[in-house]
Predict the 3D structure of the following.
Amino acid sequence: MITRIEIDGFKSFENFSLNLRPFSAIVGPNASGKSNLFDALKFLSLLAQTDVHSAMQSMRGEPEELFRITTVREHTRMKFAVEVLLPRFGFDPFGARFEINAQRLRYELALTMRFDAQRVPTGIVVEEESCRHIAKKDDYIGFINKSLVSYSSRRNPFMEMSREGKVPVIQIRQDGPTETGASKRGRPLKLAAGEATRTALSTINTAEFPHLFALREVLSEISFLEINPSEARKPNDRFEEKKLRADASNLASVLAHIKDETGTLDRPEGAIADISVDLSSLISTVKRVKVHSGSNVREYSFSIETEDGLEFSSRLISDGTLRLLALLTILDDPFRSGILCFEEPDNGVHEGRINDLINILRESTLEYEMGESPFQIIINTHSPAVLTSLLPKEIIAADLVSSSNPKDGRSVHRTRMRIGVEEDSLDLEPGSMLTRAEIGRILKKKQGQA
């Protein structure tokens, strides 16, 4: 779970910081930076898994366009920081269990653009990277009982930048257990960082570094649901992966997996019954979801049965219903984990059912025990109907603010996001209190208004 993110020099962000909860809703008009925050999270997720060039190629636009550009300045450096809550335990790729002694970590990363003599961009490299634990006395987290969180008293960071002569290096300290159970204290692993084209975090593939490995898992498991109805309708073979893809193209396979893993003699449909109940609560004509799987079925598929007894195959289900089914497949999956980012969750939902949908989203993040990996949801929306269904602590108000360059008077826009809704107080400083009425006014703004 990410509890805080800081961004500078990426797209519309400058000196930006935001605290996040298990369920957070970013509310704001179009072009206010809501999707840019999702892009920043996606970029961090990719950087934890692959090299910088590949990560940038997977983003919208050209690599240079990810750096902040204003009428005053073109940034050549971007910086990120995230604070996370790790699960108490984890498993490496070989199934070996490891323990996390410091569940609260802060990870920082800076990238810079390199140029040749003619100022032509030649590449983007890692300039700084570090990771340290957050001490209990310094931890602001308020939505979890801190007495249940494991904190560390260690002095050294898990990862830090240093120099050997003129060469910058990234030092990664071992912290896995020895055969006696004590923590390892060997020489740190050193990676040359002069022209690093991938993050050191992306190289951590073993529980020899359990805290960094768990951090990498948290960032790698950020998912973005961007459902493609034409793909979601297709049947799947038995070898499809069991975690839902962003476009939901393996929806049938995931539904079959959930049915097979959770079904019992008393409850043969398993968690599919929960998906049916939730879908019926959002679309009154739906009675249940039927998953066609088993040893005699060569391809997995699904259909929907309506209250009047009719059955519709996936080819005939509406786009809105498919969108909700894919979302509920994630939410009702007992094996869910990680961070889900979802844009405009109310698409395809009748306005009278939006409150029910928000309740389902909220409740899916509440079932958390300290030994497990918490499930986090971040949505963005410009819907006043969604706004009215949110609790004050869940609302993040997004808008663009502008300032004038004192030298030439040109305007510079940046994304602002504020938390802390009160009914009758308003403070316009970033990150401070604001009212629902103010958020409603923000939603009605034209693009670019301050």
